[in-house]
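Sequence only, no structure available. Ideas?
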Amino acid sequence: MAEITAASGRGAETPDPTVVSVPGADGPAPGPVGSTLLVVLRGLDSGPRGLTEAQAEERLARFGENTVPAAHGASWPRLFVRSLRDPFTAVLGCLGLVSAVVFAWGTASVILLLVVVSCVLRATGEHRADRSMTGLRELVATTATVQRRADEDAAPTTRELPVEDLVPGDVVRLGPGDMVPADVRLLRAIGLTVHQAALTGESAPVAKHADDLPPGPGAGVFEQPQLCFQGSSVAAGSATAVVTATGARTRFAAAQGGPVRHEASAFDRSVHGISWILIRFMLLTPPLVLMANAALRDRGMETLPFAVAVAVGLTPEMLPVLVTTCLARGAALLARGHGVIVKRLPALHDIGAVDVLCLDKTGTLTQDCPVVDRALGPDGRDDPEVLNWAAVNAWWTLQLADLPSPDALDEALLDTADEDDLMAYDGIAAVPFDPLRRLATAVVRTPGRLGTHTLVVKGDVEAVLERCALDADARARTSALAAGHADAGLRVLAVATAERPARARDYTPADERGLAFRGLVTLRDALAPTAADALAVFADRAVSVKVLTGDHPGTAVRACRDLGIPVEQDQVLTADRVDGLTEPELAALAHRTAVFARCTPEHKARITQALRTDGHTVGFLGDGVNDLPALRTADVGIAPRGAADVAREAADVVLAEKDLTAIAHAVEAGRHASGNVAGYLRITLSSNLGNVVAMLCAGLLLPFLPFLPMLPAQVLTQNLCFDAAQLAFAYDRPPPSVLRRPTVLSPRELLRFITGFGALNAAADLATFGVLALALHGLGTTEDEAVFHSGWFTENLLTQALVMLLLRLGRVGAQGRRPGPVAWAAAALAAIGLLLPPSPLGPPLGLTALPATYYLLLTAVLALYAGALLAARARNGRREAAS
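Reply:
I predicted one. Tokens follow.
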């Protein structure tokens, strides 16, 4: 693509910020930004009618898709290299290097195997997740309204195309909420304002127009009113524009310094903090073991491989792999099963952590259509005749005023009427609804009333009453009755009629006088069919729902109460009260408020921020341009697929339909993923800590043992087997208790858990150590060592399998049915522990077959350990329930 550089003479390899891209170097080039529209169109070899399909195909092949290069996922090799930068992987690599330096090749080889397996699994999982996310984004791909021609002589037609198919010279149309799909030059614009904060940081919308006015002195490219840029969005108005640059040639691509960084969630921060605590322990372990062995047993550098193996044994090296697998699997299941698309994987953790969900009323709690509630006569009692007159007005106004379709209120009235009853009247004339009059009139001929016309008037209560022949007391009573229903969240229409002699001349608003008041019709918002069930799920999941609406507070409260959400009088705030609160006051008040009414976009964003300040994890469901500030402020922005382009692009999660049930499924999926990660950390760290403490105690406190309690290769092999079994947590289904509240990984609580259960594990290991030491006393040294190592190797894998079973399945109530992936993994781990020592693979690792008496002693130790584990689990469960 040719670029016209400014007179400063800069090279063509550096795009000048004052140029317009053109389709070919051999074609006429447009002038700089200040050029007239005619010059720009000539340079693009285009016109107001747009390109032909053949021209568009040729340019797409030449310039490529209209995508930002950074949007493409990383390749598998790059992901593999990136995974090497993980803290755990880096520490393992350093430990392996230390082992190689002291020629402990067996230890170094096993550590290298752990690093390679971890990196391969993580890179493969992330690569698969990237491909899945790319495929899922196609379901919500942004489109643009493009004007093209079949050939040179054909008339232009408009159609929706994916933005990736846009090319320079295309003519596009823009409307409120649209993302600007590429860099464009305006052809026509009506009241157009755009948000271009992504490019300039300016939060206020900027006015744009298509006039060929020269730029002001010192004006930058983004201040040119004729130009709009990719990355901006339409706030108001409409426009037709010609595309001047696409893809990597847009200023958005040039200004983008890299992928957008999202603030880490509380869960991610907890995992990160715990990881660094473990890394510090890992780095301290080898020197402590070396110094202790040198001081107590005159063993120095020869124990270094064992010290390294012990440090590796403390490492949850599968943590990055498990996190990626849990998130990718949860996102894929959500997309396939519930039409929920997670645009970035960490957002799944975030939505699982949501404890406050903010949403509008219309389209979520209620459908975007009212339904008739009651028809009341002048005395306030039910009167079906009032509803009949209201339907007659709606029907004949629609027929005689040449309206394209009934409005929502008229449609609700017509849904209750019988068409034959309506057709019994002959329509004569109609005076349609007028916002100033706030009412509509239909003139009909009533059956059996020859020579008489009936005026049927329907509209705003006060507007109708002031045209009725009522005394002051009757008018006051009726106004109070209507106001009471309005305060209860209902919409109220008044109905009146009048008899007039038949005439040929037109009826006008002047005829709407001296009316006979017939009664009131109340309407309520139709509830969304799945809203009640979804709200019940949210209540069970400890998710508080806040309604942020621009509607009347009574209407919002009525919808909430109809759906079973108790809303007290002090739980309703209107925007005028919000304006008078300071940030701390709003944060304190927002916690107990259920309905925020008469909200502007700024109010929604401020309330969302106040809830976050109060310590909540906030999700916000929005679908319009006015929801954009709150979507960006919330921890998790959620938008339906049919939302405005700019809202959908800003969201972290996209729904196929605007349905609260889908959000409930997303919350469950997020908590499943977080619960699996938390379960993995608890079980793995408690087991690893117990093993490490036992090995250190055995090696340091029992100096009569003439050999290491376990060889480095045996420690690492055991660790590798346990790592493989732990991957089952990524495919596990955690217990129902995990879904009832967000998963919180408190380092203090986790430390208490792993210390308690790790101590039990260490006690079982040391008991096994004592049994082995006593049972084998007097045998030859070589046989002592092989049998001792084999016995402890088997016991370690069996206790780790027992921990996986009891700490996981016990929380589910033993699941009661068939075993899950964790149970099968634990069974495989136990089988390896029993079968590996006597197998042909045992001797190379220094393992051998065990005497039969050992299995009897081991059974007793495991039985005692299981009993202690169950008692500790019950105590921990009571503590968690109390908290």
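Confidence is low (pLDDT under 50) at residues 1-33, 257-261, 778-782, 810-816.
Hope that gets you unstuck.
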